[in-house]
Design brief:
elongated; four-stranded mixed beta sheet; 190 residues; alpha+beta
Amino acid sequence: MILDDLKDYGNPRCKLQRLVRDGAYTQVIRGLYETNPRTPGYLLAGSIRGPSYLSFEYALYRHDLIPEYIRLYTSATFGTGKVKRYETPFGRYRYRDTPSETFYMGVETIEEDGYEYRIASKEKAVCDELYIMAPIRSRKGLEGFLYDDMRIEEEDILSLDRELIRKLSRGYHCTSVNTLRDYLDEEACR
């Protein structure tokens, strides 16, 4: 869009380079520029690589499930087959694949300051995190991961939407997500 606006210049790419040098634009990645250098990095995550949504540790932090501040914008993609990382003036980004069958389930679109971004629900972020871990087959292993390693509060896990977890578990085809589903069902029966 910027090059289209600069099409009347003799060399639009040189003009763009001068505008970047002069601070009118900040290059995020090749071919992507931002006019406001103070834009929060999470607002740009979906533009850097898409389709994607914020998830994993970053979404867990945003939903107040984990106590640590996350300095890395972690997002989910599908169909790429690899982890992709970007270092930008707006922060560090990491993109990982999740199953395409569940990609759009449990994801919310939020509008903020003229930007739109997508972020996983609490349930989806927990499932995404479990999806990338080594298989967890036991209740004890799941509790150790969630409560000790991730430091999520037990009441936060027990308050997750069991129906959404059930729906997600059918698409993840993941032992750890199935273990979470069974754990929540057992706890609901107590």
